[in-house]
Structure to design on (373 residues):
């Protein structure tokens, strides 16, 4: 799905240098896509021999708060982007004084803070689960009385893959819950009413400098222990919800004046509504299937958007199921390579830990005629 564009913008030519904040697998796959289009990548990461640095031309290994290293990095690149959203905003602002950072640091600021994020969704008319900002255990008790139990308490900042959140079922859990999240996020939390959802879906929208936009098909996601296990397309939801999910992602991208990618995760309620959960202004784990099932994958689309290139077609040519390889799952790599329907992607991580994303596998079948049950 695509949208209209404004007047053309002069693109960055091949050979230009793309700076990537973060050294994980998303940065790795951005760098691989960039290299295919003739760009050079420079990684800024806090850990040496990270997945992204293994495939990039240059790497700066330093603290994300090292101002001298940040200035040197900015002087060496033509545009910068983030592969994860927990980069200090002040660091991104510093780099943005020298070169374009896409998406803008203001987008990052919203995505980093659940209070700002939920306020943003509600302000542009997108529904979320009922929620309250919480400061202190007494405030938590009042919020619980308003939203009821069970409910989910989350740190306002620096949470991902289920980290920094706890379920509250009764008042006996309040002290433990507040202690669990109060060490991060500046002592501010977000309490959400529990959602007995039917499905989880996500949509990834790309938007260019010229305002042109496109969206990948919404994905149906399965989580275990708050970590994505698998993502499949087409999502098994009615056509009207597919359209509504794309519209929600597009509305968010437009309201943010986004340049780059925006992934929006949503709950499908049992009565057929979409509730916004969270967003990430970058490529997303739930979109890895696009590498093998789309004319233009999410990583190439990211490069196209931030470099001022025309967006590619997000058209899907196959049905797909992407499965994360977590921890010791990766030892099955040889068996996976023997499956003719499977496409294996490994991230170059040397240490295997339970739950750590070591790679993923996408299995393809011919595209179905129907896009919903």
């Amino acid at each position: 799905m695509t949208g209209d564009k404004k007047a053309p913008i002069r693109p960055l030519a091949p050979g230009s240098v793309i700076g990537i904040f973060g050294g994980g697998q998303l940065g790795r796959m951005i760098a691989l896509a960039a290299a295919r289009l003739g760009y050079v990548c420079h990684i800024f990461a806090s850990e040496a021999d990270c997945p992204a640095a293994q495939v990039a031309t240059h790497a700066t290994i330093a603290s994300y708060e090292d101002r001298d290293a940040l200035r040197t990095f900015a002087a060496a690149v033509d545009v910068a982007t983030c592969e994860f959203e927990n980069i200090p905003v002040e660091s991104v602002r510093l780099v943005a004084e020298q070169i374009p950072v896409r998406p803008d640091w203001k987008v990052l600021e919203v995505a980093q803070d659940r209070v700002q994020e939920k306020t943003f969704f509600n302000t542009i008319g997108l529904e979320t689960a009922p929620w309250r900002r919480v400061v202190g255990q007494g405030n938590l008790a009042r919020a619980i009385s308003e939203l009821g139990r069970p409910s989910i308490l989350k740190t306002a900042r620096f949470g991902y893959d289920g980290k920094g959140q706890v379920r509250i079922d009764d008042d006996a859990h309040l002290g433990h819950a507040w202690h669990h999240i109060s060490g991060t996020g500046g002592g501010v939390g977000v309490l959400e009413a529990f959602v007995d959802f039917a499905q989880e879906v996500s949509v990834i929208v790309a938007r260019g400098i010229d305002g042109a936009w496109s969206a990948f098909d919404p994905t149906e996601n399965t989580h275990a222990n708050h970590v994505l296990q698998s993502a499949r397309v087409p999502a098994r939801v009615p056509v009207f919800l597919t359209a509504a999910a794309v519209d929600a992602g597009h509305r968010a991208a437009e309201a943010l004046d986004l340049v780059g990618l925006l992934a929006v995760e949503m709950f499908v309620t049992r009565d057929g509504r979409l509730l916004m959960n969270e967003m990430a202004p970058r490529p997303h784990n739930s979109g890895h299937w696009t590498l093998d099932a789309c004319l233009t994958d999410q990583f190439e689309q990211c490069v196209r958007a931030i470099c001022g290139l025309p967006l590619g077609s997000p058209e899907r040519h196959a049905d797909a199921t992407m499965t994360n390889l977590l921890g010791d799952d990766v030892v099955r790599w040889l068996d996976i390579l023997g499956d003719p329907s499977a496409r294996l992607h490994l991230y170059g991580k040397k240490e295997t830990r339970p739950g750590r994303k070591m790679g993923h596998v996408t299995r393809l079948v011919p595209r179905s005629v129907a896009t919903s049950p």
Summary: The chain has a mean pLDDT of 93. The chain has eleven helices and 17 strands. The domain at 17-112 is CATH 3.40.50.20 (Rossmann fold).
